[in-house]
Amino acid sequence: MLHLFEKFGIELEYMIVREDDHSVAPIADRLIADFCGAPLNECEVESCGVSNELAAHVIELKTPEPAADFAAMEAGFTAAVGRINKTLSLHSARLLPGPMHPTLDPATESFTWPHEGQEIYSLYDSIFNCRGHGWFNLQSCHINLPFAGDREFALLHSAVILLLPLMPALTAGSPFLDGRISGLADTRLDIYQHNQDRCPSITGLVIPEPAFSQTDYRKTILEPMYREIAPFDPSGILGHEWLNSRGAIARFDRNAIEIRLLDVQECPAADLALAQFIIAALRRLAEDRGSSLGKLVLRSPTREKKRQLQEVIRNGMDAPLIIPELRDAFDLPGHVTTAGGFWRYLFDSGHPDALPEDARAIVDRILRVGNLSTRLIAAHRQRDAPAGFRPITDSLAACLAENRLFDASPHRLSIPFPVDGVRK
User: Fold this and answer.
1) What SS3 class is residue 379?
2) How many domains does the chain have?
3) Which domain holds residue 178?
4) 135-181 pLDDT per residue, tens
5) Under a CB-based contact definition with an 8 Å cutoff, are residues 162 and 20 in contact?
């Protein structure tokens, strides 16, 4: 059994799009069959696991086992992306990163996975009507954090609850919806929180309710959810921990908390750098505050933490800090008043060895020039209207293929490493 911050699991979701116009291509089954001979739920490409999702144009890449070597993870994801793109080229398709396709019309372009596990997706569709952006246009990065026993669970869950409302300030990358600027830093999360309004206990307030043991968690979160879904699911198909759609969920079946709130970025280097930064912040919080974390979590109701999240969804890095326990948890100075300022302060005041040099360079750049959403808006406003979103999706696809950060400069929408002279 793994202990706190010992090893981690990372999952990255990507769209499959056609090479000619970058519309979505529902061929995840054909891609997986190319690698393992049949459209199975999972296969392995290079050192990554690859699995299907509800949408037939989405695949998930993941670490096959928990690991601590983020450089090896990045190499594995990059190699898998290269191999998958090479295979997709035979179908005139490629991978596109980013949490939302800027012009997708889910009413006309959405298709569900038609093979093994399809009965789960059909049931979801019958209950929630899955023909919308919330089911077919939401790609994310998941971080799985292990715990051993109730004491470690309580510590980790408390730290996650406190930091979760501010995490999307770093990772917001979805400013477009239906071919226009939505006006939100994180459109994906705005849609995500309403996906399952028919059964509100499944998503709750997105920020998890305080629960400090497995028994407490089951009573507070899981059992109400199972009761509410039961009339729609008499066979109990959905009665599992993965039904929980909060921004972070407990997976007692594998002794981990899975953070699900993060928009997937433009390349594995960015996702893994931000994941390491978030993990370092959680570790710092757990080590500095210890058992007092539970009391901090209880100082304000979950609804107030949701209000903080809403500010971040709207304003990203510029969102005001409105939860006083965050200030107390990190002894923030008075001049730190925004989500971006919060993360800048943690970055500058953290131990230099908490992040490897490559990750520090990437996080520093994001804190200086803006999250992906900010950079995408800047790039879009610099383009001629007739060009639409194609220059941006071209650049995003190149960023993924070449493991590059996205840059909004007028003449170069993606920047190769070295980033600030770090990566060779």
Assistant:
1) helix
2) 1
3) 9-351
4) 999 999 999 999 999 999 999 999 999 999 999 999 999 999 999 99
5) no
Element of type H or E holding 401: helix 390-402
Give Rg (Cα) of the chain: 20
Q: And the tokens for 279?
A: 């993990």
**CATH, residue 174:** 3.30.590.20
Question: Would you give the DSSP letter of residue 384?
Answer: -
Torsion of CA 40, 44, 45, 50, to 10 degrees: 60
**373 domain-assigned:** no
Question: Contact 297/210 with Cβ under 8 angstroms?
Answer: yes
Q: Which amino acid is at 120?
A: I
Question: Is there a domain that residue 415 lies in?
Answer: no
- Closest to 134 (Cα-Cα) out of 35, 206, 235: 206
Residue type, 280: A
Handedness of CA 189, 195, 28, 393 (dihedral sign): negative
Flag whether 378 is in a domain.
no
**DSSP string for 187-232:** HHHHHHTTTTTTSTTTTTTSSPPP--SHHHHIIIIIHHHHHHHGGG
Structure tokens at 55: 């949408």
Please say whether the beta carbons of 276 and 185 come within 8 A: no
Spatial separation of the C-alpha atoms in residues 362 and 342, rounded to whole Å: 17
**66 falls within a domain:** yes
Question: Are the C-beta atoms of residues 127 and 198 closer than 8 Å to each other?
Answer: yes
Question: Mind listing the pLDDT tens digit for each residue in 319-359?
Answer: 999 999 989 999 999 999 999 999 999 999 988 788 999 99
Residue 250 CB-density burial (10 A; 0-12 exposed, 13-18 middle, 19+ buried)? buried
